[in-house]
Design goal:
Blueprint: E1 6-18, E2 23-35, E3 39-43, H1 50-57, E4 65-72, E5 77-80, H2 86-92, E6 96-99, H3 103-106, H4 113-124, H5 131-144, H6 150-154, H7 163-176, E7 181-185, H8 193-210, E8 213-218, H9 221-227, E9 230-235, E10 238-244, H10 245-250, H11 255-262, E11 311-314, E12 317-319
Parallel strand pairs: 3-8, 3-9, 6-7, 7-8
Antiparallel strand pairs: 1-2, 1-4, 4-5, 9-10, 10-12, 11-12
């Protein structure tokens, strides 16, 4: 499989949640792709459906419509994660890993780091691998994530380690499975600024070394600009814009993308940032058309009634907005 092929292709994904108040329409026909070795940023305000999309990929959440097509190098086949059998999913799960926002909640507190790291390695290792080989690989992984004294850490419990160390262990456990796709859901949000920088640099280096495709979920545009090759901008369960990272920041097209970028505080100052007026619409009764229409400074009458289709600005830049001549879908 080459860099040009899609490792993951999500098409028209729709997710609803039934609550006592009614049905929440959280994801509305979301489509994204990720190629082998590519780092894809998924950015948007908190509550826009980014984490829900990530959990759909690992089957923590079941969509009501759409496809999640994954190319499995080990099975040499293309599978739809939504409809695949449990036996096939068990094999695919070894190739797809997810790092969660809270490392303390992702590691079992009653087992040592060594027990959990060895279990992660054993999960994907050949059946003939010995205990000494697993132990050696576990120590190597801790060294790869730049944790000193790995023997001591192997015998430690998670509560005996700092948040930054716990997050490094989560990264080591995910990479120990040697996944083709890694989903990182706000992996630095709970850490202080200096540790964030260390984790991001480490994450970037390791992913490049292992040639793992990454979907990096965050609301931090600075993180996206530093780590992603390509970016999808989400708002209220819809994809507003997608482009290469450089092009998105140099030439943002959608009014929401422009609002996000202009809301980032500048080191040079320049007054108080106002942000984007208004609030995300209720998922119980979202607009039929573009969900950003209630906050958009460039809204036209049909925006509330008809969802604008994704239109191509060029080969690497797409935007869903009637400002750019798209016809109603």
């Amino acid at each position: 499989m080459t860099q040009e092929h899609d490792l993951l292709r999500i098409t028209d994904l729709q997710v609803d949640f039934n609550t006592f108040e009614g049905c929440l329409h959280v994801l509305d026909r979301v489509s994204i792709t990720a190629r082998m070795g590519e780092k894809v940023g998924l950015v948007g305000e908190s509550g826009c459906g980014k984490s829900t999309l990530g959990r759909c990929i690992v089957r923590r959440v079941r969509p009501v419509a759409g496809e999640i097509i994954f190319w499995s190098e080990r099975l040499n086949n293309v599978e739809d994660i939504v409809s695949v059998t449990d036996s096939i999913w068990k094999q695919l799960r070894k190739q797809i890993q997810m790092i969660f926002q809270e490392p303390g909640a992702a590691i079992n507190p009653v087992f040592t780091v060594g027990d959990q790291l060895r279990a992660a390695i054993r999960f994907s290792a050949p059946t003939h691998i010995g205990k000494s080989q697993i132990q050696r690989r576990a120590i190597e992984l801790l060294q790869e994530v730049q944790l000193s004294d790995p023997e001591r850490i192997m015998s430690s419990y998670p509560f005996q380690l700092s948040g930054g160390m716990q997050q490094r262990i989560c990264i080591a456990m995910a990479l120990g499975v040697q996944p083709s796709l890694l989903i990182a859901d706000e992996p630095t949000t709970a850490l202080d600024v200096t540790i964030q920088e260390q984790i991001l640099r480490l994450f970037n280096d390791l992913v490049s070394y292992h040639r793992t495709a990454v979907i990096f979920i965050t609301h931090n545009l600075g993180v996206v600009r530093e780590i992603a090759d390509r970016v999808y901008v989400m708002y209220a369960g819809q994809v507003m814009e997608s482009a290469t990272t450089d092009e998105l920041f140099e030439n943002p097209m959608h009014p929401y993308t422009r609002g996000l970028i202009s809301a980032v505080p500048k080191l040079t100052g320049g007054g108080i940032i106002e942000g984007i007026p208004g609030h995300i619409p209720s998922y119980l009764d979202p607009p039929t058309g573009c969900r950003f229409c209630t906050r958009c400074p460039d809204v036209v009458p049909k925006c509330d009634e008809v969802r604008p289709p994704i239109g191509s600005i060029n080969a690497s830049h797409e935007v869903a907005c009637f400002l750019y001549g798209g016809e109603a879908s």
